[in-house]
Design goal:
By secondary structure, the protein is mainly alpha-helical. It has 15 helices and two strands. A two-stranded antiparallel sheet has the order 1-2. Strand 1 (25-27) and strand 2 form a beta hairpin.
Length: 342
Protein backbone atom coordinates (compact mmCIF):
# COMPACT_ATOMS: atom_id res chain seq x y z
CA UNK A 1 0.00 0.00 0.00
CA UNK A 2 2.80 2.41 0.97
CA UNK A 3 4.74 1.47 -2.16
CA UNK A 4 1.68 2.11 -4.39
CA UNK A 5 1.12 5.54 -2.77
CA UNK A 6 4.73 6.44 -3.30
CA UNK A 7 4.49 5.54 -6.99
CA UNK A 8 1.29 7.56 -7.36
CA UNK A 9 2.89 10.57 -5.75
CA UNK A 10 5.96 10.26 -7.97
CA UNK A 11 3.91 10.06 -11.18
CA UNK A 12 1.32 12.71 -10.30
CA UNK A 13 1.68 16.46 -10.39
CA UNK A 14 3.82 18.01 -7.69
CA UNK A 15 1.92 19.99 -5.07
CA UNK A 16 4.84 22.42 -4.87
CA UNK A 17 5.19 25.23 -7.42
CA UNK A 18 8.13 25.17 -9.81
CA UNK A 19 11.09 27.32 -8.85
CA UNK A 20 11.35 30.64 -10.71
CA UNK A 21 14.68 29.85 -12.41
CA UNK A 22 14.75 26.06 -12.86
CA UNK A 23 17.14 23.84 -14.78
CA UNK A 24 15.85 23.17 -18.27
CA UNK A 25 16.78 21.31 -21.41
CA UNK A 26 17.98 22.58 -24.77
CA UNK A 27 16.03 21.55 -27.85
CA UNK A 28 17.03 21.68 -31.46
CA UNK A 29 15.61 24.34 -33.75
CA UNK A 30 14.90 21.69 -36.36
CA UNK A 31 14.05 18.58 -34.36
CA UNK A 32 11.70 17.69 -31.53
CA UNK A 33 14.06 15.58 -29.48
CA UNK A 34 16.00 16.77 -26.46
CA UNK A 35 19.67 17.33 -27.12
CA UNK A 36 21.36 18.01 -23.80
CA UNK A 37 20.77 19.50 -20.37
CA UNK A 38 21.02 23.28 -20.47
CA UNK A 39 22.54 25.59 -17.90
CA UNK A 40 20.25 26.78 -15.10
CA UNK A 41 18.40 29.99 -15.78
CA UNK A 42 19.43 33.06 -13.82
CA UNK A 43 17.88 36.52 -13.81
CA UNK A 44 21.08 37.89 -15.36
CA UNK A 45 20.96 35.35 -18.19
CA UNK A 46 17.28 36.05 -18.76
CA UNK A 47 17.93 39.78 -18.98
CA UNK A 48 20.65 39.09 -21.56
CA UNK A 49 18.08 37.17 -23.62
CA UNK A 50 15.35 39.75 -23.03
CA UNK A 51 17.63 42.54 -24.25
CA UNK A 52 18.90 40.44 -27.21
CA UNK A 53 22.53 41.13 -26.38
CA UNK A 54 23.94 39.81 -29.67
CA UNK A 55 21.62 41.94 -31.80
CA UNK A 56 22.16 44.92 -29.51
CA UNK A 57 25.91 44.51 -29.98
CA UNK A 58 25.52 44.77 -33.76
CA UNK A 59 23.43 47.92 -33.29
CA UNK A 60 26.15 49.45 -31.11
CA UNK A 61 28.83 48.58 -33.68
CA UNK A 62 26.93 50.19 -36.56
CA UNK A 63 25.97 53.25 -34.52
CA UNK A 64 29.55 53.56 -33.33
CA UNK A 65 30.77 53.50 -36.92
CA UNK A 66 28.36 56.32 -37.77
CA UNK A 67 29.55 58.40 -34.81
CA UNK A 68 33.19 57.73 -35.67
CA UNK A 69 32.79 58.83 -39.29
CA UNK A 70 30.66 61.84 -38.34
CA UNK A 71 33.28 63.01 -35.86
CA UNK A 72 36.04 62.77 -38.44
CA UNK A 73 33.86 64.72 -40.88
CA UNK A 74 33.65 67.45 -38.24
CA UNK A 75 37.43 67.51 -37.95
CA UNK A 76 37.52 66.20 -34.37
CA UNK A 77 38.60 62.94 -32.79
CA UNK A 78 35.78 60.47 -32.13
CA UNK A 79 37.44 59.35 -28.90
CA UNK A 80 35.80 61.59 -26.32
CA UNK A 81 33.02 61.42 -23.76
CA UNK A 82 30.39 62.31 -26.36
CA UNK A 83 30.85 58.94 -28.05
CA UNK A 84 30.33 57.10 -24.75
CA UNK A 85 27.18 59.10 -24.02
CA UNK A 86 25.76 58.48 -27.49
CA UNK A 87 26.42 54.74 -27.48
CA UNK A 88 25.09 54.41 -23.92
CA UNK A 89 21.81 56.06 -24.87
CA UNK A 90 21.46 54.01 -28.06
CA UNK A 91 22.18 50.81 -26.09
CA UNK A 92 19.52 51.60 -23.50
CA UNK A 93 16.87 52.24 -26.16
CA UNK A 94 17.85 49.10 -28.08
CA UNK A 95 17.49 46.98 -24.95
CA UNK A 96 14.12 48.56 -24.19
CA UNK A 97 12.87 47.90 -27.73
CA UNK A 98 13.95 44.27 -27.49
CA UNK A 99 12.04 43.82 -24.23
CA UNK A 100 8.88 45.36 -25.71
CA UNK A 101 9.24 43.18 -28.81
CA UNK A 102 9.35 40.04 -26.68
CA UNK A 103 6.39 41.25 -24.64
CA UNK A 104 4.32 41.53 -27.83
CA UNK A 105 5.59 38.21 -29.21
CA UNK A 106 5.55 36.12 -26.02
CA UNK A 107 2.65 33.93 -27.29
CA UNK A 108 4.21 33.54 -30.73
CA UNK A 109 7.58 32.69 -29.17
CA UNK A 110 5.99 29.82 -27.25
CA UNK A 111 5.04 28.17 -30.54
CA UNK A 112 8.56 28.18 -32.01
CA UNK A 113 11.27 25.85 -30.79
CA UNK A 114 14.06 28.37 -31.20
CA UNK A 115 12.28 30.98 -29.05
CA UNK A 116 10.13 28.93 -26.66
CA UNK A 117 12.68 29.26 -23.87
CA UNK A 118 12.83 33.04 -23.97
CA UNK A 119 12.12 34.40 -20.48
CA UNK A 120 8.76 36.01 -21.21
CA UNK A 121 7.56 33.13 -23.38
CA UNK A 122 8.52 30.65 -20.67
CA UNK A 123 6.97 32.78 -17.91
CA UNK A 124 10.18 33.43 -15.98
CA UNK A 125 9.73 37.17 -16.51
CA UNK A 126 6.17 38.47 -16.20
CA UNK A 127 4.44 40.67 -18.76
CA UNK A 128 4.33 43.65 -16.39
CA UNK A 129 8.02 43.20 -15.54
CA UNK A 130 8.98 43.20 -19.23
CA UNK A 131 6.72 46.13 -20.13
CA UNK A 132 8.02 48.33 -17.30
CA UNK A 133 11.62 47.59 -18.26
CA UNK A 134 10.91 48.09 -21.95
CA UNK A 135 9.04 51.39 -21.71
CA UNK A 136 11.39 52.81 -19.08
CA UNK A 137 14.52 51.98 -21.08
CA UNK A 138 13.06 53.21 -24.38
CA UNK A 139 11.88 56.58 -23.13
CA UNK A 140 14.71 57.20 -20.66
CA UNK A 141 17.32 56.33 -23.28
CA UNK A 142 15.71 58.62 -25.88
CA UNK A 143 15.48 61.50 -23.40
CA UNK A 144 19.08 60.91 -22.34
CA UNK A 145 20.21 61.09 -25.98
CA UNK A 146 18.24 64.28 -26.57
CA UNK A 147 19.92 65.84 -23.52
CA UNK A 148 23.50 64.65 -24.04
CA UNK A 149 23.71 64.77 -27.86
CA UNK A 150 20.91 66.65 -29.61
CA UNK A 151 17.14 66.59 -30.06
CA UNK A 152 17.36 65.11 -33.56
CA UNK A 153 19.27 62.06 -32.33
CA UNK A 154 16.89 61.48 -29.43
CA UNK A 155 13.89 61.79 -31.74
CA UNK A 156 15.33 59.48 -34.42
CA UNK A 157 16.14 56.86 -31.80
CA UNK A 158 12.63 56.99 -30.35
CA UNK A 159 11.11 56.75 -33.83
CA UNK A 160 13.32 53.73 -34.55
CA UNK A 161 12.01 52.00 -31.44
CA UNK A 162 8.40 52.84 -32.35
CA UNK A 163 8.89 51.57 -35.90
CA UNK A 164 10.40 48.32 -34.68
CA UNK A 165 7.94 47.60 -31.87
CA UNK A 166 4.66 49.18 -32.97
CA UNK A 167 4.83 48.71 -36.75
CA UNK A 168 7.24 45.94 -37.76
CA UNK A 169 6.47 43.50 -34.93
CA UNK A 170 2.65 43.33 -35.50
CA UNK A 171 3.14 43.16 -39.28
CA UNK A 172 5.14 39.93 -38.95
CA UNK A 173 1.87 38.01 -38.51
CA UNK A 174 0.01 39.91 -41.24
CA UNK A 175 2.11 40.24 -44.39
CA UNK A 176 5.43 39.17 -45.90
CA UNK A 177 6.15 42.84 -46.60
CA UNK A 178 7.13 43.06 -42.93
CA UNK A 179 10.74 42.29 -43.93
CA UNK A 180 10.88 45.41 -46.12
CA UNK A 181 9.16 47.58 -43.49
CA UNK A 182 11.41 46.26 -40.72
CA UNK A 183 14.53 47.08 -42.73
CA UNK A 184 13.91 50.80 -42.14
CA UNK A 185 14.29 50.84 -38.33
CA UNK A 186 16.96 48.16 -38.72
CA UNK A 187 19.06 50.48 -40.89
CA UNK A 188 18.81 53.64 -38.78
CA UNK A 189 21.55 53.03 -36.12
CA UNK A 190 24.51 54.27 -38.25
CA UNK A 191 22.53 57.36 -39.26
CA UNK A 192 21.70 57.94 -35.59
CA UNK A 193 25.40 57.65 -34.77
CA UNK A 194 26.13 60.20 -37.49
CA UNK A 195 23.55 62.71 -36.20
CA UNK A 196 24.84 62.24 -32.65
CA UNK A 197 28.22 63.49 -33.87
CA UNK A 198 27.06 66.07 -36.42
CA UNK A 199 23.59 67.19 -35.31
CA UNK A 200 22.13 67.04 -38.83
CA UNK A 201 21.09 64.48 -41.44
CA UNK A 202 23.60 64.58 -44.32
CA UNK A 203 24.27 62.47 -47.40
CA UNK A 204 27.14 60.47 -45.83
CA UNK A 205 24.79 59.48 -43.00
CA UNK A 206 22.12 58.54 -45.54
CA UNK A 207 24.75 56.43 -47.36
CA UNK A 208 25.41 54.52 -44.13
CA UNK A 209 21.67 53.98 -43.73
CA UNK A 210 21.44 52.69 -47.32
CA UNK A 211 24.31 50.23 -46.78
CA UNK A 212 22.65 48.68 -43.74
CA UNK A 213 19.22 48.72 -45.39
CA UNK A 214 20.38 46.75 -48.44
CA UNK A 215 22.64 44.40 -46.44
CA UNK A 216 19.68 43.10 -44.43
CA UNK A 217 17.84 41.36 -47.26
CA UNK A 218 20.24 38.51 -48.17
CA UNK A 219 20.92 38.19 -44.42
CA UNK A 220 17.27 37.80 -43.47
CA UNK A 221 16.40 35.64 -46.46
CA UNK A 222 19.05 33.18 -45.26
CA UNK A 223 17.67 33.21 -41.71
CA UNK A 224 14.10 32.91 -42.97
CA UNK A 225 14.99 29.91 -45.11
CA UNK A 226 16.88 28.14 -42.33
CA UNK A 227 13.99 28.49 -39.87
CA UNK A 228 11.03 28.66 -42.26
CA UNK A 229 9.18 25.76 -40.62
CA UNK A 230 9.62 27.24 -37.17
CA UNK A 231 8.44 30.65 -38.35
CA UNK A 232 5.40 29.03 -40.00
CA UNK A 233 4.64 27.25 -36.73
CA UNK A 234 4.61 30.62 -34.96
CA UNK A 235 2.44 32.28 -37.59
CA UNK A 236 5.25 34.57 -38.81
CA UNK A 237 4.71 35.41 -42.48
CA UNK A 238 7.85 35.42 -44.61
CA UNK A 239 8.68 34.87 -48.25
CA UNK A 240 10.59 31.63 -47.41
CA UNK A 241 7.53 30.00 -45.81
CA UNK A 242 4.97 30.78 -48.50
CA UNK A 243 2.64 27.77 -49.12
CA UNK A 244 4.11 26.89 -52.52
CA UNK A 245 7.60 25.73 -51.53
CA UNK A 246 9.09 25.97 -55.02
CA UNK A 247 7.76 29.49 -55.51
CA UNK A 248 8.93 30.43 -52.02
CA UNK A 249 12.45 29.24 -52.82
CA UNK A 250 12.53 31.10 -56.14
CA UNK A 251 11.16 34.33 -54.67
CA UNK A 252 13.57 34.14 -51.73
CA UNK A 253 16.56 33.71 -54.05
CA UNK A 254 15.47 36.51 -56.40
CA UNK A 255 15.14 39.00 -53.53
CA UNK A 256 18.48 37.97 -52.02
CA UNK A 257 20.27 38.21 -55.38
CA UNK A 258 18.81 41.61 -56.31
CA UNK A 259 19.88 43.19 -53.03
CA UNK A 260 23.28 41.48 -53.01
CA UNK A 261 23.94 42.93 -56.48
CA UNK A 262 22.75 46.39 -55.38
CA UNK A 263 25.01 46.10 -52.34
CA UNK A 264 28.16 46.63 -54.42
CA UNK A 265 27.39 50.13 -55.79
CA UNK A 266 25.68 51.18 -52.55
CA UNK A 267 28.76 50.21 -50.52
CA UNK A 268 30.86 52.50 -52.75
CA UNK A 269 28.70 55.54 -51.98
CA UNK A 270 30.88 56.74 -49.04
CA UNK A 271 33.90 56.83 -51.36
CA UNK A 272 32.06 58.96 -53.93
CA UNK A 273 31.13 61.36 -51.10
CA UNK A 274 34.83 61.58 -50.14
CA UNK A 275 34.18 60.16 -46.67
CA UNK A 276 36.72 57.43 -47.46
CA UNK A 277 39.56 56.96 -49.93
CA UNK A 278 40.35 54.61 -52.80
CA UNK A 279 41.55 51.79 -50.56
CA UNK A 280 38.08 51.45 -49.03
CA UNK A 281 36.52 51.37 -52.51
CA UNK A 282 38.77 48.46 -53.50
CA UNK A 283 38.07 46.52 -50.30
CA UNK A 284 34.33 47.22 -50.52
CA UNK A 285 34.25 45.92 -54.09
CA UNK A 286 36.03 42.70 -53.12
CA UNK A 287 33.80 42.16 -50.10
CA UNK A 288 30.70 42.91 -52.19
CA UNK A 289 31.68 40.33 -54.79
CA UNK A 290 32.17 37.78 -52.01
CA UNK A 291 28.73 38.57 -50.60
CA UNK A 292 27.22 38.26 -54.08
CA UNK A 293 28.97 34.92 -54.67
CA UNK A 294 27.60 33.50 -51.42
CA UNK A 295 24.13 34.67 -52.51
CA UNK A 296 24.55 33.02 -55.93
CA UNK A 297 25.42 29.77 -54.15
CA UNK A 298 22.30 30.29 -52.03
CA UNK A 299 20.32 29.86 -55.28
CA UNK A 300 20.82 26.09 -54.86
CA UNK A 301 17.73 26.08 -52.66
CA UNK A 302 15.59 26.33 -55.81
CA UNK A 303 16.85 22.98 -57.10
CA UNK A 304 15.90 21.01 -54.01
CA UNK A 305 14.33 23.10 -51.21
CA UNK A 306 14.33 20.29 -48.64
CA UNK A 307 17.87 18.97 -49.14
CA UNK A 308 20.83 19.27 -46.82
CA UNK A 309 22.60 21.20 -49.60
CA UNK A 310 19.82 23.79 -49.36
CA UNK A 311 20.31 24.18 -45.62
CA UNK A 312 24.08 24.44 -46.00
CA UNK A 313 23.71 27.14 -48.66
CA UNK A 314 21.49 29.19 -46.35
CA UNK A 315 23.87 28.71 -43.45
CA UNK A 316 26.82 29.76 -45.59
CA UNK A 317 25.06 32.94 -46.71
CA UNK A 318 24.20 33.78 -43.11
CA UNK A 319 27.82 33.36 -42.03
CA UNK A 320 29.02 35.44 -44.96
CA UNK A 321 26.58 38.24 -44.15
CA UNK A 322 27.62 38.54 -40.50
CA UNK A 323 31.28 38.55 -41.56
CA UNK A 324 30.80 40.99 -44.43
CA UNK A 325 29.26 43.87 -42.48
CA UNK A 326 31.90 44.26 -39.72
CA UNK A 327 34.69 43.96 -42.29
CA UNK A 328 33.07 46.61 -44.49
CA UNK A 329 32.64 49.01 -41.56
CA UNK A 330 36.20 48.35 -40.40
CA UNK A 331 37.56 49.15 -43.88
CA UNK A 332 35.44 52.31 -43.97
CA UNK A 333 36.70 53.49 -40.58
CA UNK A 334 40.35 52.66 -41.27
CA UNK A 335 40.33 54.55 -44.57
CA UNK A 336 38.13 57.43 -43.38
CA UNK A 337 39.31 60.97 -44.02
CA UNK A 338 39.83 63.14 -40.97
CA UNK A 339 41.78 63.50 -37.76
CA UNK A 340 41.76 60.34 -35.67
CA UNK A 341 43.33 61.65 -32.46
CA UNK A 342 43.36 65.03 -30.73
Amino acid sequence: MGSRSAKTAASGPSPHPQTRYPYSVATSATTDHVLAPAKPHTLFADYATLFKVRISTMVIITAGAGYYLGSLQSGISPFHVGMIQALLGITIVTCGSSALNQALERKTDRLMRRTADRPMAAGRISLSHGLVLGFAATFFGSAYLAYTTNLLTGTLTLLTAIGYVAIYTPLKRITTINTFIGAFPGALPPLIGWTAARGVIEWPGVALFAILFVWQFPHFMAIGWMYREDYARGGIRLTPNLPNKQYAALSTVVQALVYAAIMIPVSLWPATLHVTGTLYAVVASILGLGYLWATIRFARIVRDPDSEVSRRAARNLLRTSVTYLPLLLAAMMLDAKGRLFF
